[in-house]
Write a structure and sequence with these properties.
The chain is α/β, with parallel strands linked by helices. The chain is built from 15 helices and 17 strands. A six-stranded parallel sheet has the order 5-6-4-1-7-8, with helices on both faces. Strand 12 and strand 13 form a beta hairpin. It binds adenosine-5'-diphosphate and magnesium ion.
């Protein structure tokens, strides 16, 4: 790792400003899924055990630069309190006098969370004055918010200028380690599985991964733009006409057998077909495609999966996605998944813990694997 790690810091008795990604779904006043919170516990525990006075900042939802009670981080702070069985203070102000006084009163090992960063317009604008106010909450800075690091915001980028030490937390390091192994795949076969609705969202990702992947298994809505580009009939299946040329180019530049497309399909009302009839809408990959995909998945030394194979929100149209989830879980190689919907599918199949790494960052993981430098990572202190 080329960046300073939280392990390298002497934090004893120091105020540590910790940027976390606690952008979790809420159900009323309760955290509905705490995966992103538990993912940062190793960093939080390390800081507590080493006598740091920890001030956590995070964003939740899209409150658009002003306070909005629906997006308060208070329930998140309370949830963290239960997870750690330890008091977590909460400042109803993100920055300013109240937050600073509460931070100053922290004892070694103490924890404080400040209110949603995005209640302040300066956060997303990466405003220097707001970044400076935020920096006044800590003596050193630690970033563990992988899922927010593709955005150059005040809490990920601007704030780092005010610290001599800006370090990566353990979750951020783990994300970069596993996604780095996918980005520069040294082991083969390297198998990539891509699905989801639109090819447009994932074009830079496909182009970048196609340089190294031995197999690109394509399912989901985006498969039909590829199939149409090959001249196949796709009925009324999802297609992005504007991207037919891009799909043709990717196929033309690919190595023989590199792209693996579905050979059979499940239509809207459950019929399984090889040829999609006029007016038919393909909503999932068929059984033969699932078996083909599983065969390639089993050979992988390293594997990356993003995006569902069908309209998995509507069972039984989730069968293709669940089959892929189970095949990925059985693969003996290094297995990495990213993207909200693929993670939901892994959980639905009950196999989330069978993968080497499930990324906490949707957009961030895809940008990283498209070859982009994440601004929040670039801004950290070099080792
Ligand atoms: P992820 O969040 O995993 O990156 P996306 O957001 O790109 O994935 O795509 C997920 C959406 O794609 C889901 O809502 C799913 O219903 C839709 N989808 C998958 N396959 C199809 C299909 N064949 N036709 C229409 N929509 C599809
Ligand atoms: Mg999605």
């Amino acid at each position: 790792m080329a960046k300073l790690s939280v392990k390298d810091l002497d934090v004893n008795g120091k105020l540590v400003l910790l940027r976390v990604d606690f952008n979790v779904p809420l159900a009323g006043n309760q955290v509905a899924d705490d995966a992103r919170i538990t993912a940062s516990l190793p960093t939080i525990r390390h800081l507590i055990e080493h006598g740091a006075r920890v001030v956590m900042c995070a964003h939740l939802g899209r409150p658009k630069g002003k306070p909005d009670a629906r997006y308060s981080l208070k329930p998140v702070a309370e949830h963290l309190e239960r997870l750690l069985d330890k008091n977590v203070g909460f400042s109803p102000e993100t920055v300013g006098a109240t937050a600073q006084e509460m931070a100053a009163r922290l004892a070694p090992g103490g924890l404080l969370m400040v209110e949603n960063l995005r209640f302040q317009p300066g956060e997303e604008a990466n405003d220097a004055a707001f970044a400076r106010q935020l920096s006044e909450l800590g003596e050193v800075y630690v970033n563990d918010a992988f899922g927010a690091d593709h955005r150059a915001h005040a809490s990920t980028v601007g704030v780092t200028k005010f610290f001599t030490q800006a370090a990566a937390g353990f979750l951020l390091q783990k994300e970069l380690d596993y996604l780095g192994r996918v980005l520069v795949a040294k082991d083969h076969p390297f198998v990539v599985i891509l699905g989801g609705a639109k090819i447009s969202d994932k074009l830079p990702l496909i182009a970048h991964l196609a340089k190294q992947a031995d197999r690109l298994l394509i399912g989901g809505g985006m498969a039909y733009t590829f199939l149409k580009a090959q001249g196949q009939g796709i009925g009324d299946s999802l297609v992005q006409e504007d991207f037919l040329d891009a799909a043709k180019k990717l196929l033309a530049e690919s190595r023989p057998g590199q792209f693996v497309l579905p050979v059979d399909h499940v239509l809207e009302h459950g019929e399984v077909v090889r040829d999609i009839p006029a007016g038919g809408k393909a909503m999932d990959i068929g059984p033969e495609s699932r078996a083909n995909f599983a065969g390639h998945i089993a050979t992988a030394k390293i594997l990356f999966w993003n995006g569902p194979m069908g309209v998995f929100e509507k069972p039984p149209l989730d069968a293709g996605t669940l089959a892929v989830a189970r095949a990925v879980a059985m693969c003996a190689g290094v297995t990495v998944a990213g993207g909200g919907d693929s993670v939901a599918a892994l959980r639905a199949a009950g196999v989330e813990d069978k993968l080497s790494h499930v990324s906490t960052g949707g957009g961030a993981s895809l940008e990283f694997l498209s070859g982009d430098v994440l601004p929040g990572v670039a801004a950290l202190t070099d080792r």
